[in-house]
Structures are given as C-alpha cells and as structure tokens.
Specification:
Length: about 60
C-alpha cells in the first residue's frame, strides 16, 4: 500500500522547507512554505471533520 496523505504532506512540507533554505530568493520561497503549511493545516482540519461525519453516519447506520 502507498503512503498515507499525511505522510506525503509531511514530505512536501520538508521539501519546501529544505528548498527555502537553499534558495537564493529565500524570502519569497519562505512565504510559499508558510502558505503551503497553512493549506496543509486546513486540509487536515477538513479531513478530520469528514472523518467525524463518516463515523457519525456509520454509528447511526449500525444503531
């Protein structure tokens, strides 16, 4: 089985941070890193909400 979404996101965040450290346009890249981190955090929150909804539906179905 492939990597989980969370693992891929962590790798992406690591890649962007590493790239920011090596990049000549450090400030611009750093801003992209922060934007990407914010997107990842929002996606994780959204996924947690989706999981909660699914669990609620399943528990109602099984009742």
């Amino acid at each position: 089985m492939g990597k989980s979404i969370h693992e891929r996101w962590k790798e992406d965040a690591y890649y962007y941070e590493k790239r920011a450290a090596e990049d000549e346009n450090y400030e611009e890249t750093k801003a992209r890193v922060e934007k990407k981190k914010a997107q990842i955090i929002e996606s994780l929150k959204h996924n947690k909400d989706k999981i909660k909804q699914m669990e609620e539906r399943l528990s109602k179905k099984n009742s």
